[in-house]
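Need tokens for this chain, all 184 residues.
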Amino acid sequence: MLELTKVAGGSNPRNCRPTSGRIEVCNATYGQNGWLGLAQIWASGSHITQAVSKLNDTYFNTVKYNKPEWRQLVMCQEIAHDFGLDHQDEDFDNLNLGSCMDYTSFPKGNEHPNQHDFDQLETIYGGHLDTSTTVGQTSRGAASQIDRNQFGQLVRSTNGGRTELYSLDLGNRQKIFTFVIWAD
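Here are the structure tokens for all 184 residues:
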């Protein structure tokens, strides 16, 4: 099982390296690389072994995104991906669902999970009866500097390429899934 813990002086936010059995959440000025937020999930078979969420302060320091609701929406969405959730709606122009797992151009009211998200987590983890644990397992990591060309194969692109999902096969039933929200 993964744990969410703030570690004082832990990961260098610039590198934000994955740690087995944990979700690392970092923000830093990663530069004008195009992404506002991303989540990378290491999986071994059907088990998440470690995950990293990053928020790019380069864009959060701009007029468009320098709002608490944008930061909360993106952070909530990336961490929810780390736990295995996918989007409820990928159309930025649909009515808001009141979930951070809903793409929107107007994040106010979509800054938290909704009941559907909690129901999905119950489906994923509630009946988890096998004896497998991911704590202490190792997975081959990716480079600490995120490069679009290192995400692997593009699985899904929505909203004219504004949001994408990639998969990198590491072999031996291990993969890294990367969800990306590209900044405007």
